[in-house]
Amino acid sequence: MEPWRSVHLTKARQVGELMELRGAELPSPDISVRAHYETLRASNPSKAVSYIGHALPRREAIHWAAGLIDPKLSENAPAERATLDSARLWLDAPDDDKRRQAYAAAQSADREAPERSLATAIFYSGGSIAPEGVAPVQPAPGLANRLAVVAVVQAAWRSTDPKGFLAQALERAEAIAEHGIQPSK
User: Fold this and answer.
1) Which InterPro entries does the UniProt record give (predicted)?
2) Over 60: is that where the pLDDT of 66 sits?
3) Phi-psi label, residue 23: left if phi above 0, alpha if psi -120 to 50, beta otherwise
């Protein structure tokens, strides 16, 4: 089984550590990222969603989550729509100002909204999380990925078919793992 082209980690244990798994929860040190994913996908698809979301590089994980959030579902929720719009601006051209703007917009969105988790993932994707003008503070490793996974799970529960949604999420994540972020059509 060939490793995915876009995933930079090589061992499943590295992904487990980003997920903050401990002890017996950690995969065997010799199993590859993709082999462990295939085992999870067959036995526990919801754990596979979290696993692949942590295996992807941060930016790819955020793009994956963003591509799964249906913008039509936030049309009647102004704060969520503004948060999604702000997140999409960062996705199109990432920079620190847009990263902070996405986070600011997220503060008005519902705490259970996938748009809020997506924008928060963007904020924790890189750069200082301290207020501007204060000594830089870096986010914890894996935090952006964790929040991207949360956004995907929240979007699944907001859908009419959560199980089907998660199956589609896995397919999209696999495509990103293999081919990277594809330009929008």
Assistant:
1) DUF6931
2) yes
3) left
